[in-house]
Task: structure prediction
Amino acid sequence: MTSYLELSNITKAYGNFTALDNVSLSVEKGEFVTFLGPSGSGKTTTLMIVAGFEKASGGSVRVGGRSISELAPHERNIGIVFQNYALFPHKTAAENVYFPLQMRGVNRAKGLRQAEDMLSLVGLKGFGHRHPKELSGGQQQRVALARALVFEPSLLLLDEPLGALDKNLREQMQIEIKRIQRSLGVTTIFVTHDQSEAMSMSDRIVVFDKGRIEQCAAPLDIYHSPQTSFVASFIGESNLIPATVTNAAARIANSPVLGSFDYAGSDNALADGQEVTLLIRPEHIKLSRNPIEDRKSARMTVETIVNYGDNALVIGRAGDIPMRVRVLGADVVIIKEGEECCISWTPDSVFVITR
Amino acid sequence: MGSSLSRLTERTNVWPWLLLAPLGIYMLVFFVVPLVDVAIMSVTDPRVSLVNYQRVLTGALYQRVFLNTFLTAAFVTVCCLAVGYPLAYLMAHSKPRTAMLILLLVTMSFWTSFLVRTYSWMVLLGNNGPLIALLQMIGIDDTPQLLFTRFSSTLAMVHILAPYMIMNIFSVMKKIDPALIRSAESLGARGWSLFRHVYLPLTAPGIANGCVLVFVICLGFYVTPVLLGSPREQMIAGLIGHQIDEFLAFGMGSAMAMVLLLITFVILAIYHRRFGLDKLWG
Amino acid sequence: MNTFKRWAGILVTVFIAAPLVIVVPMSFSSASSLQFPPPGYWLGYYRAYFTDLDWLIPTWNSIVIASATTLLTMLLVVPATFALVRHKFRGKGVADLMMLMPLAVPHIVMAVGYYSYLGDLGLVHSHMGVILAHTCLSVPIAFLVLSANLKGFDRNLERAALSLGASPTKTFIHITLPILRPGLIISALFAFIQSFDETVVAIFISGRDAETLPRKMFDSIRQEADPVIAVISTLLFFLVLVGIATPYFISTLRSRAPTPSRSPAGAH
Result:
């Protein structure tokens, strides 16, 4: 049983520079998968190879069991929404949406009706006669989405489509895209460098760095058990503590600064004496005046407090390790900058990353 | 089928050459070859020798014409700058309506044929024209001959070439960020020092552009000097035309043309090394 | 200081404007030679221009030559511009520079070359000869306009069309060409004007049989300063005025058009 979309050992080299190094990935039909990574990490290159605009140096792309590597872009039946939408300025919204149908030989009257239906689905009923420059950014985005979906593509690719929108509109479009994607059940790949976008929209997230897939998992798994320190530091805020496993069977590690630790389950088979990094999310650390029973605790010197209203970020040092603690806004009154206080956590919020 | 063709050509990269070939061949046959023809004529007509160049470079008449051309071109360039810089400044910093009006005027002038503008100056400066009439009105009876003098051709050339200068400087001026001027003012620069240390350096590329363009066009200017200038004080292009038209002296005409071409190329090459030639006409 | 600036501004403006507008009253003058202000007004020279074959034939020649030059220029320049803007290849820098060369060579030099070269080919004094020469001079201008347009062309539009199922050919016809149309039109217009206005080369190679309007005007100004020139100048003046004003008016009309006022909410 193979998956719907299969990337196998995709490699892309520009001269001596390796843009993609052996990227393999399986996506199930109807899944919403996000490619997340910093710019230059290879996520857009991968997307362009799937779309056919870039040619891979090696490896293959299969959709529904059929290899599409040798097909030209226009033969692939893949819908794409570009970052700048790429709406045709000389055509109206309806004509833009009709275009893929026109290319497939659908007659104008029928095609335009279909286009109007699709525009209604994306919430643009009655906007069909407008030219792109008469539409707002969010509306253009919807037209681009309608155009990429109207011909029932085998895949939908979204290349940072929300990058140009302001914050409120962005959140609204995230929900909207997800709704439309669900209702049509189209297999979707979404490229972004925004982790919160990836978190809120995806069935699975693929984290890219330096042309390689670092981790591929459901959003919460990525957040709670990052498998590499890159993923840990790229997704959310994190406190990273170097340590050595002292008793793998009992799940105990030792940090030279903070002493002995219990940690939560790890998928990786660990050995005694192995060097690891322990990850604790800032919101899992509790701040108090005195140590709390049943929790591992340490002393921290507070350096800076950044207030966000509903919560605050406390930055300080435990020994020589920089620590960040996120506390509720109300709790922050108990400490002041320059003071020493107690930080504590439970074993199930400590994750192990192998080095 | 189509895709396999495009993939083949992509790999071997013959596409650009295929697209360029018609124009390349055309320019070779109808641009390069005629130029080479001029070069060949300059050393073969009337016989194979460098005698034409010897005469062009040492003959008193030719030396005078070259010097005259150079001085005229330099003078016209300076005048264009003197007229163009303030006008460009007005266009860039006046109220929109005034700026629009001047821009319209300059654009009109730019697009009006050289010939039409040359003819206009014949009317303006003619013996029965408005300028002479004006002079007589204020009591100057012994009016000078204006037309067919160095004065008339120079004045007309300044008028004809000023739009090149104005457009070049204006396009630089309107891109200057007003915040830059304000910040210079806040740092204590004002009046002359603001202009000298901030505004002038910012507009320098436009000035360089305009000056090179006007100077080079003026060096090879034919129509206006021939129609409006004094027959005794020809410029180089006029003299070349004279050699071809009147004397059928292709060798001499070609040798002078080659010298003119060389001078032009040297100026443009210097500009190209500094700024890039594509900026000059962009 | 401010009044000085104002007067300097007015003076310079008059200097630019006066030679442009003076031909208009001159064209209605009844004087047979250059005289301003005109002693009287009539339309005689307009009638003279529109009935005299000595003027109409050169006008027609100029239109034919400029049209053919435009066509030939565009046929050569459009593919070449795509090659130079869209592709990277060895020798591109040199090719870019070569495109501009005809602008760098003084027209009098080209005139000498064409006089002899087209003579050798038996094309001197022929329409074909002038067209071939003018095309060389129009190429860089058309190229500059078109390449600026093509550089600003968003290639994602073509990618989008391909992804939507349009073949490369269909993408070119349905997307690339229509979007580039304004640039193509302006580019062609510039090529046309370059040829229509070109004087120096035409003086030397067009002869009696392919005499262009600028050549006829040049000869006429040199010999007798026929007042018909004022008529032609006036006509050209208004042609330029219309040419400059039209795009301006279109853009103001467009921007005033009530585009986003039709509310789709009301359509429900």
